[in-house]
Design brief:
The complex is a heterotrimer of chains A (about 325), B (about 325) and C (about 290). Chain A contains eleven helices and twelve strands. Chain A has about 325 residues and is an alpha/beta fold. Chain A starts with 5 loop residues before the first strand and ends in a 10-residue tail after the last strand. Chain B is of the alpha/beta class and about 325 residues long. In chain B, strand 9 (about 225-230) and strand 10 (about 235-240) form a beta hairpin. The N and C termini of chain B lie far apart (about 50 Å). In chain B, the strands form two sheets. Chain B has an eight-stranded mixed β-sheet, with helices on both faces. A four-stranded antiparallel β-sheet of chain B has the order 2-1-4-5, with helices on one face. By secondary structure, chain C is mainly alpha-helical. Chain C has a single domain (about 15-35, about 65-280), classed as MetI-like fold (Orthogonal Bundle), CATH 1.10.3720. In chain C, about 75% of the residues lie in helices and about 0% in strands. Classes of the chains: A alpha/beta (about 325), B alpha/beta (about 325), C mainly alpha (about 290). Chains A and B meet through helix 7, helix 8, helix 9 and helix 10 of A and helix 8, helix 9, helix 10 and helix 11 of B.
């Protein structure tokens, strides 16, 4: 079994006292050359997980490890090894600096090369992701979202990191451009052997790009497995409901919803429930579910589900 | 007054003068929609889909744009009407649901009052009737405990609930036509599914005609009868949804479908990107607007703008392409 | 994507209208600065010569704006007053901003204990009535230009602290600041490179408006006899002096008032330019 490069072990994050955990006891393991997709709806804690792994929010419990040894979020090793791409392409660049300046910045911060060498390297890196020198001279609000996100990828990879954390990197882009960026990320994984955490609310994007998929609901990880396995055979009722809800281009009638969530419980905050956080909406919830929270357990090889009554496709 | 068509758009052109030149956001678009029918307008950002819907409803101000062409809603010539008569149409003949329900709702007025106020756009409705109607409407749009919820304020509701309230306001005076501009884009997919079901239910129950503007082909697929795909201000392809989805003929449509990632595919494959970027509308390419990004483009495509041609098999299925066919997926 | 579709017709017209007032404001302020600062290098402004025969004389070739009750040239005194007003206006605002903005940025970026201490001091100073403070300073330290400036800087600094803090907090939450944190940029570098340039337009706009208020405060203090010493002409002391003659010859009050009005209006109009949406997009004046 391969060693993970970067992990979050049993991590919890709480924003302020008196609030429920935004993320509870979540473990994320990133392996070289592998993309882990983290899906869920708004407020499920997927972005908070990413921010915790980047050291942008403190962990209230759990720890980060890099190459098997614990690191604290302010460790310089982490800053060189783990880089990030954010959702809003233009907003992730200082509006007053050219893209080129911003892409060269990591080299300056880590004291590499002369100003001239840094510029050359930045232009090289930008060229590799498909941004011309002419575009690179512009400011972020003067180029398209796709160009900006390419530049963001160049900035994230210029230090040759081992880990890339992508927080909704294609959500702000049109589909035709989104596919371009996905292709670029897939190339990066293959060429540089990067380990990636890919956060998205879009099941289709995760299913087409990632090697493994993890599904989060109300601050907990509810299912994890190979991306094709999660796409083809989801077992947690929430994963099934999520997949059912995505409108498909296939209009054949075979795609009727497999699970009907309970109505009238839309406003229930799952985090406050003592047992399974999906229990209020789950059609197969039993007293057992409201009493004890299920833990992630292997249902099939490399397929973990946290559910007392996993969905069975062929009952 | 009525002649069978609910919405008729004829040769509509909308241009915005900017500092750098004129942007033609909508370029000679014609569309028709019958009573009780549902139309999806799909396109990426800058395709003109939103401008088209807003102009058709009479929301684009003549001061900011040059508009030519004709728009008729239930027999009313929208573009020729004065400000007052146009306003009189809103709510009673046609209404709109926006992407962000929070900006459409007043932050401190209770939602019941806001819905009642919308119901009072019909002068025959009394204050008492309007208040009762507010409760009834909240039930219609699927908000539980309506008698209690009328006192709630917008910020106390979830995103999906807010959009339901916005829909209740839109249908308060039983309009014949409803425009929905990216109504579920700000919502989570599970919530989106329920809002889309609500639109289905309202159209079926009250015979409301629906124009749904969306960037998401999938959303339009299961919840409209007809679809119009827009690219750079023009209609690239249109027709019955099933026909267009089964046999996308304009190259942009097929490329767009191939660019959408599949979430339930048996085998993993990356979506196929469309090279390049949407055209700069200040200097659009000659001929077919999609030409520079199209793998099949011939010299003719770069010289001559393809007209909308009828495809034999399904009535109403039209495409604007010199070299139609499904992209090799 | 690259084609932003904006309803730009009226927007552009508004921009053009702004440019006219901008030009007028800049011209006035430029001429005033030139006359007040450069002219004395070439010719002595005669602000003091009294003349019994020319008391309250109307405009003439010799005295373009006429003379005051002592027969002193009004234009020369108004221009000399401009020197005092501009010095006090720009000087005290510069001092207040230089002290206040760094403190505000520290409070806004570091938060926690640093913020608590700075904010407490700010609240204490702000709770102190500004005019009383100025009057107290003037009466204890005596009337002089530097004391007037101190009296203005003390209550003005906390406002800059607050402005800079609020702006910094909003900028610090943006993705590009997080992006800088992730690449390992040190805090001071983030503050200088990412935060400062992006809060500057708002700070500059407010500073320009503050120059106007500083000039007004100076005028008020001088009018009360607590500001610039009487032997030094300033707009405030000129108004104070002309007050007695307002019914006979309103010119004595009108001339310095008009100078003050045009100057402050000009400053405010230019400040608006920094806050207009086009300026926000391009980063202030291009």
């Amino acid at each position: 079994m391969k060693q993970p490069i970067f992990t979050l072990e049993n991590g919890s994050v709480r924003y302020g006292h008196g609030h429920p955990d935004a993320v509870s006891d979540v473990t994320v393991r990133l392996y070289p050359g592998e993309i882990l997709g983290l899906v869920g709806e708004s407020g499920c804690g997927k972005s908070t997980t990413a921010r915790a792994m980047l050291g942008l929010v403190p962990l209230s419990a759990g720890r980060l490890t890099l190459h098997g040894t614990p690191v604290n979020p302010h460790d310089r090793r982490l800053r060189a090894a783990v880089q990030a791409i954010f959702q809003n392409p233009a907003a992730s660049f200082n509006p007053r600096r050219s893209l080129l300046d911003s892409v060269a910045e990591p080299l300056r911060v880590h004291g590499q090369g002369t100003a001239r060498q840094r510029r050359e390297r930045a232009l090289e890196e930008l060229d590799r992701v498909g941004v011309t020198a002419q575009m690179a001279a512009r400011r972020p609000n003067e180029v398209s979202g796709g160009q900006c996100q390419r530049a963001a990828i160049a900035r994230a990879t210029i230090l040759r990191p081992e880990v890339l954390v992508c927080d909704e990197p294609v959500s702000a882009l049109d589909v035709s451009i989104q596919a371009q960026i996905l292709e670029l990320l897939a190339e990066l994984r293959t060429e540089q052997g990067l380990a990636m955490l890919f956060i998205s609310h879009d099941l289709g994007v995760v299913a087409s790009l990632c090697d493994r998929t993890a599904v989060m609901y109300a601050g907990r990880m509810v299912e994890q497995g190979a991306a094709t396995e999660i796409a083809g055979n989801p077992r947690h009722p929430y994963s099934v409901a999520l997949q059912d809800a995505v409108p498909s281009l296939d209009l054949s009638d075979g795609l009727a919803p497999r699970i009907r969530t309970r109505t009238g419980a839309d406003d229930v905050d799952g985090r406050l429930l003592p047992g399974c956080r999906f229990a209020a909406l789950c059609p197969s919830a039993t007293p057992e579910c409201t009493a004890a929270a299920p833990v992630l357990a292997e249902l099939a090889p490399r397929h973990e589900v946290a559910c007392h009554h996993p969905f069975d496709p062929a009952p | 007054m009525t002649d069978g068509t609910l919405l008729s758009i004829k040769d509509l052109v909308v241009e915005f003068p900017t500092g750098a030149g004129t942007v033609r956001a909508v370029d000679h678009v014609s569309l028709e929609l019958g009573y009780g029918e549902r139309l999806g307008i799909v396109g990426e950002s800058g395709s003109g889909k939103s401008v088209l819907a807003r102009t058709a409803m009479g929301l684009t101000r003549p001061g900011t744009a040059r508009i030519s062409g004709q728009v008729t809603i239930a027999g009313h010539p929208v573009l020729e009407l004065g400000e007052r008569r146009r306003r009189a149409l809103w709510g009673r003949e046609v209404a709109m649901v926006f992407q962000d329900p929070l900006s459409a709702l007043h932050p401190i007025t209770p939602i019941g009052e806001q819905i009642a106020e919308a119901a009072r756009r019909d002068p025959r409705t009394t204050r008492r009737q309007a208040a009762a109607r507010a409760v009834e409407l909240l039930e219609t749009v699927g908000i539980p405990q309506a008698t209690r919820r009328v006192h709630a304020r917008a910020h106390e509701l979830s995103g999906g609930m807010r959009q339901r309230v916005a829909i209740a306001m839109a249908i308060a005076c039983r309009p014949k036509l409803l425009f929905a501009d990216e109504p579920t884009t700000a919502l989570d997919v599970t919530v989106q599914a329920r809002i889309l079901d609500l639109f289905d239910q309202l159209c079926a129950e009250f015979g409301i005609g629906l124009v749904m503007v969306s960037h998401d082909l999938g959303v339009v697929g299961r919840h409209t009868d007809h679809v119009a795909v827009m690219y750079a201000g023009r209609i690239a392809e249109r027709g019955p949804v099933r026909a267009v989805f089964a046999r996308p003929s304009m190259r942009y449509t097929s490329a767009l479908m191939a660019a959408i990632p599949r979430h339930r595919a048996a085998e993993q494959s990356l979506p196929r990107p469309i090279p390049g970027q949407p055209p700069n509308l200040l200097a659009p390419p000659p001929g077919c607007r999609f030409g520079p990004r199209c793998g099949q483009a011939s010299p003719r495509c770069h010289a001559e703008q393809p007209p909308l041609l009828a495809l034999g098999d399904a009535p109403g299925h039209e495409y604007a392409c010199w070299h139609p066919g499904e992209a090799d997926r | 994507m690259s084609t932003a579709i904006l309803p730009t017709g009226s927007w552009r017209r508004r921009l053009r209208a702004w440019r006219l007032t901008d030009a007028l404001s800049l011209t006035w302020l430029g001429l005033l600065a030139l006359a007040a600062l450069a002219l004395p290098l070439f010719l002595q402004l005669d602000t003091e010569t009294m003349s019994a025969t020319e008391r309250l004389a109307g405009p003439s070739a010799q005295h373009w704006l006429g003379t005051d009750n002592y027969g002193r040239d009004l234009l020369a005194r108004a221009l000399s007053g401009a020197r005092v007003s501009l010095l006090i206006g720009f000087g005290s605002v510069a001092a207040a901003a230089l002290i206040g903005v760094p403190l505000g940025m520290l409070a806004g970026y570091l938060k926690g204990a640093v913020d608590a201490v700075i904010s407490f001091v700010v609240d204490v100073i702000l709770a102190f009535p500004g005019l009383v403070l100025a009057l107290a300073l003037a009466s204890f330290l005596g009337a002089s230009v530097s004391n007037v400036m101190i009296a203005i800087v003390v209550p003005m600094t906390p406002v800059f602290v607050r402005l800079a803090k609020a702006q910094t907090m909003s900028v610090a939450g943006r993705e590009y600041v997080e992006a800088s944190q992730v690449i390992g940029t040190r805090t001071w570098s983030i503050v200088v490179r990412d935060v400062l340039p992006n809060i500057l337009p708002a700070v500059l706009a407010y500073a320009l408006v503050s120059v106007g208020s500083a000039i007004l405060i100076e005028g008020g203090l001088s009018f009360l006899g607590m500001g610039v010493p009487p032997e030094q002409p300033s707009w405030g002391s000129m108004i104070n002096n002309g007050r007695i003659f307002i019914s006979e010859d309103p010119r004595l009050v009108a001339v310095p008032s008009l100078f003050m009005l045009l100057t402050i209006l000009g400053l405010n109009l230019i400040a608006d330019r920094f806050l207009s949406p086009s300026a926000a997009a391009t980063g202030g004046v291009r």
